[in-house]
Batch of 2 targets.
Target 1
Amino acid sequence: MTRYQAHEQGLTGLKLMAKIREFERRMPLLSEEGLIRGSTHPSLGMEAIAVGVSLALTDGDAIASTHRGHAHTLAKGADFGRTMAEILGRSDGYCGGKGGSMHIGVKEIGVLGTNGIVGAGIGIATGAALASKQKGDRTVAVSYFGDGASNQGVLAEAFNLAAIWKLPVLFVLENNHYAQSASVEDMVAQPDLSRRGEAYGVPSFNGDGMNLPEVFALTDAAVSRARAGEGPTLLVFDTYRYLGHMAGDTEIYRSADEVETAKKNDPIANLLEQLINAGVVTQEEWETMTKQIFEEVEAAEQFARNSPFPGVSEAFADVYAKGSSE
Amino acid sequence: MNAEMKEMVTWRALNASLHQILEDHPEAFVLGEDITTWGTGGGTYGVTRGLLKKYGRERVLDTPISEEVLLSAVAAAAARGTRPILEIMYSDFAFLGFDGIINQAAKARYMFGGQFDTPVVIRTNGGSGIGKAAQHSQSLETLFAHIPGLEVVVPGTPGDAYGLLRTAAASDNPTIFLEHKNQYYDRGPVGTDPIPFGQARVAREGAHATVVATQQILAYSLQAAEELAAEGIEIEVIDPRTLYPFDMDAVYASVGKTRHLVVGHEAVRDYGWGAEFVAQAVEAAWDKLDAAPVRVGGARVPIPYSQVLEEAVIPSKDDIISAVKRTLC
């Protein structure tokens, strides 16, 4: 990558991270207002992983996400307004309001869904990679999952299957240190989670999940290996979520000091500083950009708020393929 | 049925169907544990025999013992434009991957607002009769039929096995294809055409009572029909063939004629699919019934190993006969 490309990549990534943060910042507010039903799981602080990974992917590649999946979906290229509309259960949402925050799929850009089952995307991405191999289309699949989901059994089976078949899949483990409220230190005996990949013959790397260029570089290398038929990679990114697991989280499992300390290593601030130092952007230009980002997300929210609720007949559609059992 | 009928045993019919499916659908592929390495190279019951030789390792894949990942992976592979046909050696093993079947495959179309087709077939077997005991003999068709989004197929003859599997492979829905392990060597006529889902088959015509039954209990019902006929009782035997979609119209038409209904299955009777058929008949066709319908089903116990015990907990021909007599008296 040339210096110029790196900067373009960096600026694109910076703006996308900031836009996703603005989107996610609104989630608790919309919850409090009663506009989001059930639960929604923002990922403030974790933006560099979603964005850094997505910068290495194309529309044809697939991702399978988790309950905390807005950032993954948006970074892959989903429209902010339609994503927000889905979270609000509106007819303009990608799934017509039937999926909600935890089940957002966007077929045309390869988003195989955020998922209410935390480790399910591990199997789904493996299957998408299997389809890629069957079709010979050289697409790559990414599974995002957390430190908590890494304790589910599907991980072992998927690693082994992907390794023996050399499937083009990236297992992206976002270690944000808490599985809902359980700390990774209490739930995992071997703290180096990358060793789980090595045990199955999956090349594994640890990376700083608060550093977008590092996330991008590791992902880009893994994507190249996958496209070349060299098989899966496990990328373990260390990160931190600034908000609780979901709205209403009392956060008794961690201290305010811990959160404040973590916030000092912010992925957006880190990258902004790098780009200012490199002369790619000035503080003034950045302030103009953030105003524009605020307005774009505001427009997305207004679009979602104005979108009508789906007609009740939609509740009964799409259980089965048309012309078959339905 | 169709012109080119051949006599065949069930496993051969399924094998012929898979050959045709791989021919018809370039995007189809077959995978499962031991499917090319066991026995004569056709898996535990021979069904995948010869596929590897003809279609190669790209389309016929031996998998590790990994039901959990495979059941979710095939759902995603289907959503990404392929047609996986996954063999789960025994339906009991599907429990290891219920997330993939129930939370993922069955719901993907719906929860994503109709964006994704999930044309996956999960071929497996259920049922008792060969001494495989509690963890290899369950009849789980009711459990699958209860899940919105799944199609559930229960072929009871070699011909149905062939034709229904072709339809399953062409379906854009996730389909649970439940073979019966005690019927792989049953012989019968096999046609060349796919058989549509949701169309019951009248296996025997009769005037006095309707018996709806599948697979092994279907076979027992046909034997019961012979004995009852000798006593002057003619039963009409209906094979639903698919439990979702299911053909209540065929049941209504039959009870309109016979005015009596018995439903028989090997799955545990309590909460079984027979209860659904009886309930629908009672709700929608009460005026066509002269007596309360009767259910016959497996006892509410795991399947025991010893033959005498196994036979004691699965409905028999005599159970069908007494059920028919009960509803007629």
Target 2
Amino acid sequence: MTVILNQSFTGISIGAVLLLIALGLTLTFGQMGVINMAHGEFIMAGAYTTYVLQKSISGAGASLLVALPVAFLVAGAMGALLEWLLIRRLYTRPLDTLLVTWGVSLMLQQLARDIFGAPNVQTAAPDLLTGNISVGGITFANNRLFILGLALLCVLGLTLILRLTPLGRRIRAVVQNRDLAEVSGIATERVDRTTFFIGSGLAGVAGVALTLVGPIGPTMGTNYIVDAFLVVVVGGVAQLKGSVITAFALGVLQSVLEYSTTVSVAKVVVLVAIVAFLQWRPQGLYTLRTRSLA
Amino acid sequence: MSGIGISRRGLLAGASALGTTAALSACGAKTGSGTSSNAGAQADTSGDTVKVGLLNSLSGTMAISEVTVHNALLLAVKEINAAGGVLGKKLKPISQDGASDWPTFAEKAEALITDDKVVATFGCWTSASRKAVKPVFERYKSLLFYPVQYEGLEQSPYIFYIGATTNQQIVPALDYLKKQGLTRLYLVGSDYVFPRTANKIIKAYAEAQGMKVVGEDYAPLGSTEFGTIVNKVKDAGADAVFNTLNGDSNVAFFKEYKSAGLTAKSLPVLSVSIAEEEVKSIGTQYLEGQLTAWNYYETTPGAANTEFVAAYQAAYGKDKPTSDPMEAAYISVYLWKEMVEKAGSFDVAKVKKAADGIELDAPEGKVTVDGATQHVYKTARIGKIGSDGLIEEVWNSGKPIAPDPYLKGYDWAAGLS
């Protein structure tokens, strides 16, 4: 029983990491239809931000707390810049966004290599986050709990923004019918850029979280980008709750399979399961009903 | 030679996926046919300087380890040049980045031999990279000096193995664990040739010596998700973990290990791929008290080592540690120099013939080249990681152990290959 509970927690923590990474993509790919291959490099930017801050601020805890908003702004600004420079010219050509942003991702990786050196670096976690809490034989690692909390907080924040704020209403309007939103007086270009800023910023936050789990390197984003796209596609493009459910479901599935088989076999089985699922339900878990003609 | 033409053009075309496939298929074809007849003719020894190739991962997941080896190689070359070079010729190091990618290693090895016409090459870390370059060195009859401990069961006429083979590291490590009463082992490794072969040897040893392997798990090289593996380790009722993870997966593994509440006291981990440099970048707070098996530590006593550490830190910084693969890389250049000087020639066949019995008072203690296996006699040392990031020796084999790459001297290893 404790095995199952422990594994479930491990799965949920894998899911939380996936969710944090996929959240930004849910906005930029899900809502806007942009296949942003540079999303992984925004994660990397967030991680390196943490590294830089830790070198300049003493105290791992303080630097981690400062890193969260700063990484959001840094990655967000990079995303907004990317949108302004390149992506806004390609909104009607999703496959071109894939190629263009892939090129950008390679450039950003090289840039990171030039600035921070090729070898990967690490940050120290605050003491509070290196321990664990044990409840009834189940071990909850503090860093995993922190990441889980962070992921849920981001989901909550994003939901509130989309549901309750004027910006959220404008974003939803643009997603549902760009042309109608435009003639209704919504500055769709500005909405696009803001959406991209938030989506990329969330990747930065994910980067901060990943420094608690593993090393920081120029290619760290590419390790996660495919999984993140899987989460968004399976969850149903444009639906937050689809991503949330999928991230946790894939995390738990992966960890349970890993326990009974091996890491590689688990990865294969999860992929096969995803393919089978998409055969049965190509639109993903949830779909958005829109009045758009497209 | 048409095969070479095709592969090189393919690579130059820049389509990396396409290029590597072409290179690989060309490799296979060429070793099979054994076309090369111009033995050692690639090396250029006509000028005042001779080129030596340095082939390490300067980027990618292995760079954390291999950059330090590269530094140690450069140091040895610099020292040898300052002392007058080899046979009156200065050495010119040519560095190539294998980028933690095995086909790239093969491609760069070929470039070093055919374009730069190096007299010898030093480098590689992972066994996968060594296996990728082996046919290249054999085809061109050029020498590679390989500085890292490895899984054994290999011998190439064109490779000198300066790191430990299994009977100089893994077998002594198992002997040590057994002596401590730690007989239930959990094996954790990266998913490629070294850990898989090493674990095969460990399982054969365990079966013969009354130890028990209670679990075995592999993570992809570069993987950072160790939650499940650590849970499995925790549930398996092991006495110790035998860790053959490579590169910075170790960072994620030990972070997870500590988060799960496991310590060196409750469940010690013996690692064979973590040396001082890795300890420093993983963080001592995750590693204090854990065990390692090597032939050299920064703390190894002796005048040769004091000099080596001082020279390395003068060149690369006071806070830079030295480690076993770095030391092996460093002495590999000196061993090659001794061989060349004994042979009186850079010619590969003559250098190989001169190799047997070459001795060196190395930082790790006395090493002797065994000409028959092209391996080195080395002293095995078990160490414990201290809070200062240095590794303190807790046991050593007392005298250099003869290399036995195919474990012929052990009955339990009879079925291995």
